[in-house]
Amino acid sequence: MGTGKIKVDKVTLAYELGKAINPQLAYGQLVGGIIQGLGYALFEEMEEDRGRLLTTNFDDYLIPTTEDVPEIDLVLHESENPEGPYGAKGIGELGDELTAPAIGNALFHATGTRQRDLPFNLERVLLGKPLGKQVCP
Amino acid sequence: MRNFCLARTLDEARSLLAQWGDEALLCAGGTDLMVALRNKSLAPGKTCLIDIGRVPELSFIRESDDWVEIGSGTTHAAVAASGLVAASSLILGDAARSVGSPQVRNRGTLGGNILTAAQCADTIPSLLVLDAELLLLKPDGTTRRVPLAGFFPKPKETAIGPGEILLSIRYRSLAGSAWRGSYYKLIRRAAVAKSRLSFATLARVGGSGLIEGARISIGSTLPTPGRFGPAEALLKGKAPSWSLVEEAAEVCASYMIEKAGWRWSTEYKQPVVKNVIKRELAAVLGLETSHAE
């Protein structure tokens, strides 16, 4: 509609993790990572002015709410891994690094514009550049 | 802030206000005030906080004759849940529902939203297009009624007088009328964020197929909350069409720039005001819309 607002409908993540020793824990780790990555991709920004932090509260520094969380399709692909403990591979932080590039690619697919700076907020998506700190006057 | 008083009745609030004079600060939900208190950004010289958040006489929603009247201490949650408000205002319930989070809506009040006078206040645009009026209690015990339009002389300021208490807000019911309305709040995430822009739109198309009235207010666009008169005048008396809606959208954006000047955010707001108000007007005028969000 021409506001620059992104709504993520669905995230699909396939992850090859060796042996899933605790599948439920692995699932939670990756879903949490996706949601954290969603905030990184769309909202989170710390702005400063000559070293003074301007983003000083969570009314400016936005993180996803439950209402922002899209449908998540997670595929855990198990494989043999003789190197790791009991065949496992690490999955600690990797979930949250993939969301932003995926959204960036989806944005490019939808609009034809390649946006290379995060977050993909209203101004960047509509104008292709940031407009500085947003303060409710 | 050195003193805190809890008023249990309106009379108590009045006498406390008289007792503390210029040092008093009224507090209803406190959702903005508590933040200001912590930031030490309150007006200087205020030493006594008078809590009127539990005064029962200030919390009500009622209808008499054609008017719907809402007590200033009515919470956003109560306004959002009211079937009477939904049917009579078309849009105020949606606006109240868009405020903050459930916790904020349970504390914050309609009167507080008006008196804080933030440009991004969620309920003010809706109340402006409803031609709302305020009932103020003066220190001498008499009341005065003022239109909400003109109640904001300067940014973040209201025309409330010293020692006055906002009692209620009223508007004429639109239930059963030909008016159609829409409220849209543009925010940075799905919920719990300040509005970037908020659009309150009402329009009425008569039996002749012509627009009998259109009312537009867009939050966070003008220096003080107000209506978009030139766009309303343009629409009145004409037949709804896409080209008319496009023209009205141009007029809205020009009016914003005329009133607010070219600001750092104008580069974003100018196209977005046009894009969104087109869709809002199309919806309330009953035009076929192929523009999905």
Q: In which order are the strands of the major sheet of chain B placed? A: 4-5-8-6-7
The helix tally of chain A amounts to 3
> Any idea what the shape of chain A is?
elongated
Q: How helical, in percent, are the residues of chain B?
A: 25-40%
Spans of chain A of 5+ residues with little confidence (pLDDT < 50)?
Answer: none
Q: Alpha-carbon distance between the termini of chain A?
A: 25 Å
Portion in strands of chain A: 5-15%
Oligomer: heterodimer
Q: Radius of gyration of chain A from the CA trace? A: 18 Å
Strand content of chain B: 15-25%
What share of residues of chain A is helical?
A: 25-40%
Radius of gyration based on Cα positions of chain B: 19 Å
Mean pLDDT of chain B: 95
Short recap of the structure:
Chain A contains three helices and four strands. With 137 residues, chain A is α+β, with helices and mostly antiparallel strands. Chain A starts with 9 loop residues before the first strand and ends in a 10-residue tail after the last helix.
What can you see in these coordinates?
The complex is a heterodimer of chains A (137) and B (293). Chain A is an alpha+beta fold and 137 residues long. Chain A has three helices and four strands, in the order βαβββαα. In chain A, β2 (48-49) and β3 (52-53) form a beta hairpin. The radius of gyration of chain A is 18 Å and the shape is elongated. The mean pLDDT of chain A is 91. Chain B has 293 residues and is of the alpha+beta class. Chain B is built from eleven helices and eleven strands. In chain B, α9 packs antiparallel against α10 (242-260) and α10 (242-260) runs antiparallel to α11. The relative contact order of chain B is 0.11. The mean pLDDT of chain B is 95. Chain A binds chain B through residues 1-5, 7, 42-43, 59, 62, 64-65, 67-68, 121-123, 126-127, 131-132, 134, 136-137, and chain B through 118-120, 155-156, 186, 188-194, 196, 220, 264-265, 267-268, 271-272, 274-276, 279, 291-293.
